[in-house]
Amino acid sequence: MMPTIYTASPGSTFKTVTSISTPNKPQNYNINQLIAHHKSHSSTVFTKKVPCTPATLTNYMDPWKLIEERLHERDELEKKDGAYFKAFSQLARLLPQGNASLAEKERQVLISENETLIERLNQQTLRLESSEGKVAQQDKKIRSLESTVAQLNSKIDHLVLEVAEKNRTVEIINDEHLVHEIQQNVLKEEIEKLKKENESLVQRWMAKVAQDADSMNQGNEK
Protein backbone atom coordinates (compact mmCIF):
# COMPACT_ATOMS: atom_id res chain seq x y z
CA MET A 1 0.00 0.00 0.00
CA MET A 2 1.46 3.33 -1.07
CA PRO A 3 1.67 6.16 1.53
CA THR A 4 -0.29 9.39 1.19
CA ILE A 5 1.44 12.05 -0.97
CA TYR A 6 1.25 15.56 0.49
CA THR A 7 1.36 18.69 -1.67
CA ALA A 8 2.02 22.21 -0.45
CA SER A 9 3.23 25.51 -1.69
CA PRO A 10 6.70 26.84 -0.73
CA GLY A 11 6.75 28.77 2.54
CA SER A 12 4.00 26.71 4.25
CA THR A 13 4.59 24.38 7.22
CA PHE A 14 3.93 20.62 7.45
CA LYS A 15 2.83 18.92 10.65
CA THR A 16 3.93 15.32 10.88
CA VAL A 17 2.12 13.44 13.64
CA THR A 18 3.47 10.18 14.88
CA SER A 19 1.94 8.10 17.71
CA ILE A 20 4.77 6.52 19.62
CA SER A 21 5.62 5.58 23.19
CA THR A 22 8.24 7.71 24.95
CA PRO A 23 8.37 6.44 28.55
CA ASN A 24 11.16 6.77 31.02
CA LYS A 25 12.62 3.29 31.14
CA PRO A 26 12.25 1.71 34.61
CA GLN A 27 14.56 -0.99 35.80
CA ASN A 28 13.70 -4.68 36.39
CA TYR A 29 10.17 -4.73 34.94
CA ASN A 30 8.09 -7.88 35.17
CA ILE A 31 5.42 -8.73 32.59
CA ASN A 32 2.46 -7.09 34.38
CA GLN A 33 4.48 -3.92 35.05
CA LEU A 34 5.55 -3.75 31.42
CA ILE A 35 1.93 -4.06 30.27
CA ALA A 36 0.74 -1.36 32.70
CA HIS A 37 3.69 0.88 31.82
CA HIS A 38 3.09 0.45 28.12
CA LYS A 39 -0.64 1.21 28.49
CA SER A 40 0.12 4.37 30.48
CA HIS A 41 2.48 5.69 27.77
CA SER A 42 1.13 4.17 24.59
CA SER A 43 -1.03 7.18 23.75
CA THR A 44 1.81 9.78 23.88
CA VAL A 45 1.75 11.80 20.70
CA PHE A 46 4.21 14.40 19.59
CA THR A 47 3.91 16.85 16.73
CA LYS A 48 6.89 17.88 14.69
CA LYS A 49 6.71 21.02 12.58
CA VAL A 50 8.68 20.80 9.38
CA PRO A 51 9.28 24.01 7.43
CA CYS A 52 8.08 23.73 3.88
CA THR A 53 11.17 24.27 1.76
CA PRO A 54 11.78 22.98 -1.76
CA ALA A 55 13.92 20.16 -0.28
CA THR A 56 11.34 19.06 2.28
CA LEU A 57 8.56 19.46 -0.26
CA THR A 58 10.49 17.17 -2.63
CA ASN A 59 10.97 14.63 0.17
CA TYR A 60 7.24 14.60 1.00
CA MET A 61 6.28 14.38 -2.63
CA ASP A 62 8.56 11.33 -3.06
CA PRO A 63 6.69 8.37 -1.49
CA TRP A 64 9.74 6.10 -1.33
CA LYS A 65 11.70 8.78 0.47
CA LEU A 66 8.81 9.10 2.91
CA ILE A 67 8.78 5.32 3.44
CA GLU A 68 12.52 5.36 4.10
CA GLU A 69 12.08 8.10 6.71
CA ARG A 70 9.25 6.19 8.39
CA LEU A 71 11.36 3.01 8.49
CA HIS A 72 14.26 4.97 9.98
CA GLU A 73 11.91 6.39 12.64
CA ARG A 74 10.64 2.89 13.41
CA ASP A 75 14.21 1.58 13.81
CA GLU A 76 15.08 4.44 16.15
CA LEU A 77 11.93 3.80 18.15
CA GLU A 78 12.72 0.08 18.44
CA LYS A 79 16.24 0.89 19.62
CA LYS A 80 14.89 3.18 22.33
CA ASP A 81 12.24 0.71 23.50
CA GLY A 82 14.12 -2.53 22.82
CA ALA A 83 13.54 -3.76 26.36
CA TYR A 84 9.83 -3.28 25.96
CA PHE A 85 9.70 -5.10 22.63
CA LYS A 86 11.73 -7.94 24.12
CA ALA A 87 9.42 -8.14 27.13
CA PHE A 88 6.37 -8.12 24.89
CA SER A 89 7.88 -10.85 22.70
CA GLN A 90 8.40 -12.94 25.85
CA LEU A 91 4.86 -12.17 26.90
CA ALA A 92 3.64 -13.19 23.45
CA ARG A 93 5.41 -16.53 23.88
CA LEU A 94 3.97 -17.01 27.35
CA LEU A 95 0.40 -16.09 26.50
CA PRO A 96 -0.26 -19.04 24.17
CA GLN A 97 0.96 -21.40 26.89
CA GLY A 98 -1.33 -19.74 29.42
CA ASN A 99 -4.18 -19.84 26.93
CA ALA A 100 -3.44 -23.49 26.21
CA SER A 101 -3.42 -24.27 29.93
CA LEU A 102 -6.66 -22.34 30.39
CA ALA A 103 -8.17 -24.06 27.37
CA GLU A 104 -7.11 -27.44 28.77
CA LYS A 105 -8.70 -26.59 32.13
CA GLU A 106 -11.86 -25.46 30.39
CA ARG A 107 -11.82 -28.62 28.30
CA GLN A 108 -11.47 -30.75 31.44
CA VAL A 109 -14.30 -28.81 33.08
CA LEU A 110 -16.46 -29.30 29.99
CA ILE A 111 -15.60 -33.01 29.91
CA SER A 112 -16.52 -33.32 33.60
CA GLU A 113 -19.76 -31.41 33.07
CA ASN A 114 -20.50 -33.53 30.01
CA GLU A 115 -19.91 -36.73 31.99
CA THR A 116 -22.12 -35.42 34.78
CA LEU A 117 -24.85 -34.56 32.29
CA ILE A 118 -24.51 -37.98 30.65
CA GLU A 119 -24.79 -39.66 34.06
CA ARG A 120 -27.84 -37.57 34.91
CA LEU A 121 -29.31 -38.37 31.51
CA ASN A 122 -28.72 -42.08 32.08
CA GLN A 123 -30.36 -41.85 35.50
CA GLN A 124 -33.28 -39.98 34.02
CA THR A 125 -33.50 -42.61 31.28
CA LEU A 126 -33.52 -45.42 33.85
CA ARG A 127 -36.17 -43.63 35.89
CA LEU A 128 -38.17 -43.03 32.72
CA GLU A 129 -37.91 -46.69 31.73
CA SER A 130 -38.95 -47.72 35.26
CA SER A 131 -41.85 -45.28 35.11
CA GLU A 132 -42.82 -46.59 31.69
CA GLY A 133 -42.76 -50.15 33.09
CA LYS A 134 -44.97 -49.08 35.99
CA VAL A 135 -47.27 -47.27 33.60
CA ALA A 136 -47.48 -50.40 31.43
CA GLN A 137 -48.37 -52.48 34.51
CA GLN A 138 -50.94 -49.91 35.58
CA ASP A 139 -52.40 -49.91 32.07
CA LYS A 140 -52.60 -53.71 32.18
CA LYS A 141 -54.35 -53.57 35.56
CA ILE A 142 -56.68 -50.89 34.26
CA ARG A 143 -57.56 -53.00 31.22
CA SER A 144 -58.16 -56.02 33.48
CA LEU A 145 -60.35 -53.95 35.81
CA GLU A 146 -62.21 -52.49 32.84
CA SER A 147 -62.87 -56.04 31.59
CA THR A 148 -64.07 -57.05 35.06
CA VAL A 149 -66.29 -53.97 35.23
CA ALA A 150 -67.72 -54.81 31.80
CA GLN A 151 -68.48 -58.38 32.94
CA LEU A 152 -70.09 -57.12 36.16
CA ASN A 153 -72.13 -54.59 34.22
CA SER A 154 -73.29 -57.40 31.91
CA LYS A 155 -74.26 -59.51 34.94
CA ILE A 156 -76.07 -56.53 36.42
CA ASP A 157 -77.98 -56.08 33.17
CA HIS A 158 -78.95 -59.79 33.20
CA LEU A 159 -79.99 -59.55 36.85
CA VAL A 160 -82.04 -56.45 36.11
CA LEU A 161 -83.79 -58.34 33.32
CA GLU A 162 -84.37 -61.33 35.61
CA VAL A 163 -85.74 -59.10 38.36
CA ALA A 164 -88.04 -57.38 35.87
CA GLU A 165 -89.23 -60.78 34.60
CA LYS A 166 -89.79 -62.02 38.16
CA ASN A 167 -91.68 -58.84 38.98
CA ARG A 168 -93.95 -59.46 36.01
CA THR A 169 -94.39 -63.08 37.16
CA VAL A 170 -95.23 -61.91 40.68
CA GLU A 171 -97.77 -59.47 39.27
CA ILE A 172 -99.36 -62.27 37.25
CA ILE A 173 -99.45 -64.52 40.33
CA ASN A 174 -100.99 -61.73 42.38
CA ASP A 175 -103.61 -61.17 39.72
CA GLU A 176 -104.39 -64.89 39.61
CA HIS A 177 -104.56 -65.03 43.40
CA LEU A 178 -106.98 -62.12 43.39
CA VAL A 179 -109.12 -63.88 40.79
CA HIS A 180 -109.07 -67.06 42.88
CA GLU A 181 -110.14 -65.12 45.96
CA ILE A 182 -112.98 -63.52 44.03
CA GLN A 183 -114.05 -66.93 42.72
CA GLN A 184 -113.80 -68.38 46.20
CA ASN A 185 -115.98 -65.62 47.61
CA VAL A 186 -118.55 -66.22 44.87
CA LEU A 187 -118.53 -69.95 45.59
CA LYS A 188 -118.98 -69.25 49.30
CA GLU A 189 -122.00 -67.10 48.55
CA GLU A 190 -123.46 -69.80 46.30
CA ILE A 191 -122.83 -72.42 48.97
CA GLU A 192 -124.61 -70.30 51.57
CA LYS A 193 -127.49 -69.80 49.19
CA LEU A 194 -127.73 -73.52 48.47
CA LYS A 195 -127.63 -74.27 52.18
CA LYS A 196 -130.53 -71.92 52.78
CA GLU A 197 -132.49 -73.41 49.89
CA ASN A 198 -131.75 -76.90 51.18
CA GLU A 199 -132.98 -76.02 54.66
CA SER A 200 -136.12 -74.49 53.18
CA LEU A 201 -136.76 -77.61 51.12
CA VAL A 202 -136.21 -79.84 54.12
CA GLN A 203 -138.65 -77.82 56.20
CA ARG A 204 -141.25 -77.85 53.44
CA TRP A 205 -140.77 -81.59 52.93
CA MET A 206 -141.12 -82.24 56.70
CA ALA A 207 -144.24 -80.07 56.81
CA LYS A 208 -145.80 -81.97 53.95
CA VAL A 209 -144.92 -85.30 55.52
CA ALA A 210 -146.55 -84.18 58.78
CA GLN A 211 -149.60 -83.00 56.89
CA ASP A 212 -149.86 -86.32 55.06
CA ALA A 213 -149.54 -88.18 58.34
CA ASP A 214 -152.30 -86.13 59.91
CA SER A 215 -154.52 -86.74 56.87
CA MET A 216 -153.95 -90.50 57.12
CA ASN A 217 -154.68 -90.50 60.83
CA GLN A 218 -157.94 -88.64 60.33
CA GLY A 219 -158.98 -91.14 57.62
CA ASN A 220 -158.33 -94.06 59.87
CA GLU A 221 -160.41 -92.58 62.68
CA LYS A 222 -163.49 -92.41 60.46
UniProtKB/TrEMBL annotation:
Domain Autophagy-related protein: 120-217
UniProt-listed InterPro entries: Autophagy-rel_prot_16_dom
CDD domains: Atg16_CCD
Keywords: Coiled coil
Pfam family for this entry, one: ATG16
Recorded coiled-coil stretches: 128-204
Family: Belongs to the ATG16 family.
Name listed for the protein in its UniProt record: Autophagy-related protein 16 domain-containing protein
